[in-house]
Amino acid sequence: MKKKRVSAVTGSILGFLAFLTVLPAALLFIGSFTGDGELGEMLRPVLQEGQEGFVQWRLVPLYPTLKQYVELLVDSPSFFTMFWNSVKLTGAIIIGQLLVGVPAAWGFSQYRFWGKRVLFLMYVALMMMPFQVLMLSDYLLLDYLNLLDTHLGLILPAVFSTFPVFIMYRFFTGIPKALIEAARLDGAGHLEIFFKIALPLGSPGILSAVVLGFLEYWNFIEQPMAFLKTKSLWPFSLFLPQIGFDNAGLAFAASVVVMIPALFVFAAGQNYLEQGIVSMGIKE
Amino acid sequence: MNMRKQAPGILFILPSFLGVFIFVLLPFLDVVRRSFTETFSGKFIGLKNYADIFHNTAFRLAAFNTLRFLGLCIPLLLLLSLFLALLLHRKGTRGQGIKSIFLLPMAIPVASVVLLWKIFFQSQGLINGMLHLLGISQVNWMNTKAAFWVLVISYIWRNLGYDVVLWTAGLASIPETLYEAAKVDGAGSWQCFWKITVPNLLPSVFTIVVLSVLNAFKVFREAYLVAGDYPHESMYLLQHLFNNWYRDLSVDKMAAAAVVNSVIIFILILFLKRIWDTKEE
What we know:
heterodimer; A: mainly alpha; MetI-like fold; B: mainly alpha; 12 helices
């Protein structure tokens, strides 16, 4: 009896928290199918000063419409450019991060060499610095390299972010030592072990670095804001907040469109995120 | 260790290290150098820049807010997510679906959150509307001290799911046999929690705290996009201050503040590392 009551209580706590968590995303979806007139009506209290009442929200729009999407996808060429910029930046950064990050994470997790502990702590510290701490020196460096106001100037520093190394390191340390030892006794070289054991067994870690990297650079805001002047080079994440409330419907539709790739990557990669971390946990 | 034995490890790390050296470490060393010099003449002036920022009211406000934010949010997030992880862990496979729901906010673009903040938190927004229905007086969320709490809420909302996943991984690594043995010895569930769960979760704490602090610095994006360069002073963070100094070209102050910031982060890491290392053996 007592057990049942407890699980009813925990169930409702979980349910309530889950509801609060999902609510904002649900609002975006609903808003994107609502016409301008209806949105204007519902949002009037925040649109104009001195209005009475509060924002209203309907669970299903009175007059559902795809007009916002048509307007966004057909009549807003600048949105396309910026969406494409985001795809390019995110893709290039993630590929670069894997190329240098995977071997580095493997090196840190398997090998002993002079200064390794200090170097790894330094990687962790650098990863935790907010962008603003290095903003000025980054600016001077990019200026010196003639990379200001270019995509390459955003990509290169991001490729050498130490964050993915940290994430993948944790997964690589979970690979059983005995396995690697056995391969070595069989005469496998360092590269062979890296390609035949580290990559397949560490793939959950690599994929979770990809998911986290995607979410990070899909939301690229501070660096482009500081280093890009030309508007046609902007990622959508700088453009979206500029759509005002008077165009709320368009903003909702744009939010949903950019959320879809994120949800997709997330749905595909989420299992690796969990599975991988769990398998890492076994080592302790 | 001889050079030949060390070579493979070094070679694996070298490409990453070279890039980090050029794009992160060199800029950082440059910041350290600038923190001891005068901006325009480049003359060495010792600790004057440091003295300046500690007398600067904007710096004090921003540092206080940032520390307050970290000091409050991180324990709150850690406890709440641990609580949820324990609940879900007990539920077994049924907990999986709920976990995905809590992870969902991670995927929502920051730029869209801005729109949502306004709808929820403006003085005539949804939350005040609900408070009104319940007969509670409304709160001016964005222009009073409540702004700080908006920041706290949005941090927890976004990061709860990821921390739950991290804790769950820690919980899954504790062998079930430990609990069974304790039960045979007559230990209650409360005792099991303190004597088995907590000590075995300590190794996970390093990773979880490091990642939570890292994510805490990211609330700046939302705060900045919603409220701009000068938000209500209760949510004026160090990053706002850096941003404003960057625009004013206050290089000397920026450099000194950046060094102070890094030293604090480094002390935090060394401290956490201590806990981690003693537990790992």
